[in-house]
UniProtKB/TrEMBL annotation:
Transmembrane segments: 24-45, 57-81, 102-127, 176-203, 235-256, 268-290, 297-316, 322-341, 362-382, 394-412
Organism from which the protein derives: Thalassovita mediterranea
Keyword set, alphabetical order: Cell membrane, Membrane, Transmembrane, Transmembrane helix, Transport
One annotated Gene Ontology cellular component of this protein: plasma membrane
CDD domains linked: MFS_MefA_like
InterPro entries: MFS_dom, MFS_trans_sf, TM_effector
Official protein name in the record: Enterobactin exporter EntS
Statement: the UniProt record of this protein carries the keyword Transmembrane: yes
Boundaries of every Major facilitator superfamily (MFS) profile domain copy: 232-418
UniProt membrane topology term: Multi-pass membrane protein
Length: 418
């Protein structure tokens, strides 16, 4: 790969990869479509929950239910991915998600009530379960569709499309649609999922031979590889802690925006759009930053930026400050993702990629439902003594402190082989 000389070179390489690789272009398009719908649901689902109840724990339960499958299902999902045609699995998972979103659409069209929050929680769990299979399969199939030297570019583009569609476009669009009717964002998501499934069906490639061992033997093989790779396990633990913290603040973020900053749905969507712009910027510039600064400085810089960003949100009194801080947090998160996902895709043997990825994500993403519950519980626990505003600021300040501790650990223990 030639050295990246600047934005023009980066943009040219981005276009070239999309233009020359039909299968990657289809996967990229499918991902953009699903993430557009997901971005709208990311705002509409908690907003629908907030119409049913103002209880932070009940709202946190909806967020936790959507992430709980990463704790319960990520490990067996990896075996399923390695034993399946990943193209078919992605398309089927998107169609299943479309059916679940259709059920949420029907619920949104009915008169929301406090009791319906638990039905919404169950549907959020099912939606998350289908997402576990879809995301694992999509990440596993990517090395079969692009060259090894294109992995950083491909991952960066996939992450940037995810954030551009899912955060920059989706939330403000959802804010506008909610003004016309809370059900509308779910209808658009349903259509996007069906179109995405069609794109994936058009991918043509020769898949690796599926794993044919018995389920438990195949699972133990993946666990053995993960246990033998100490650095991979350390990365998974750092990711798990950071995702626990991120989900804790995301869970209460909508209440912080409403009750502390007084934002409307459109205003909150705008904040999320600025946040997404940070993610897009981080995704696209990550290959350039890695080449210019080096792998390890970028890894440490990402964790430091999380600490700074969370502290800034926790102390903010203006939407612009909150938006700027979230821009920094998401840019750093995408830099971390491009580094670690590309490193894993090279390090893990192809025949084990689905299983080891799923075990990695069990550690890295399984903490998210616990973080969601912790965020809501922290607010409820602190509110009687500190008041509503300080209780809503507390999760951000606690997350900043924990990220500072993570940075110290990373400086001492994370050394990736380049």
């Amino acid at each position: 790969m030639k050295p990246l000389g600047g934005f023009d070179t980066l943009a040219g390489m981005t276009r070239a990869l999309l233009l020359r690789n039909r299968n990657y272009r289809l996967l990229f398009t499918a991902g953009a479509l699903t993430n557009l719908g997901d971005g709208m649901v990311a705002l509409a689902l908690p907003w629908l929950a907030s119409l049913m109840t103002r209880d932070p724990v009940a709202i946190a339960a909806v967020a936790a239910a959507g992430r709980l499958p990463w704790l319960l299902m990520s490990v067996p999902a990896g075996v399923i991915v390695d034993r399946s045609d990943q193209r078919r699995l992605i398309a089927q998972a998107d169609m299943l998600r479309a059916a679940i979103v259709g059920a949420i659409l029907i619920l949104a069209l009915s008169a929301p009530s406090a009791g319906a929050i638990w039905l919404l929680t169950g549907l959020a769990f099912l939606l998350g379960a289908a997402e576990v299979l879809r995301d694992n399969a999509a990440q596993t199939i990517l090395p079969a569709l692009v060259r090894q030297e294109d992995l950083e570019q491909a991952n960066g583009q996939m992450w940037s499309a995810e954030q551009l569609a899912g955060q920059f476009i989706g939330p403000p669009l959802a804010g506008l649609l909610i003004a016309a009717g809370i059900a509308l964002p779910f209808g658009v998501d349903l259509a996007a999922l069906v179109l995405a499934a069609g794109c994936v069906w058009l991918i043509r490639y020769t898949p690796d031979a599926p794993v044919i061992q018995p389920f438990w033997h195949a699972l133990k093989e993946g666990v053995a590889f993960m246990r033998s790779d100490r650095m991979l396990l350390r990365l998974a633990i750092v990711l798990g802690i950071s995702n626990f913290l991120a989900t804790a603040v995301i869970t209460v973020q909508i209440l912080f925006a409403q009750d502390v900053l007084g934002l409307s749905p459109a205003g909150y969507g705008t904040v999320l759009s600025v946040e997404a712009l940070g993610a897009v910027t981080g995704s696209l510039l990550a290959p350039l930053a890695i080449r210019r600064l080096g792998l390890h400085p970028c890894l440490y810089l990402a964790i430091a930026a999380w600490a700074i960003g969370y502290a800034t949100v926790g102390l903010s009194n203006h939407p612009a400050t909150m938006a700027t801080a979230l821009f920094i947090v998401l840019a750093a998160a995408m830099l971390w993702n491009v580094i670690t996902v590309s490193w894993r895709q090279r390090r893990i043997p192809p025949q084990l990629l689905g299983r080891v990825n799923s075990i990695y994500r069990f550690f890295g993403w399984g903490s998210m439902p616990l973080g969601a519950l912790a965020g809501g519980a922290t607010v409820r626990l602190l509110e009687p003594d500190l008041g509503r505003e300080m209780a809503l600021r507390a999760p951000f300040l606690l997350a900043a402190t924990c990220c500072a501790a993570l940075l110290i650990y990373a400086l001492l223990r994370l050394r990736l082989e380049e």
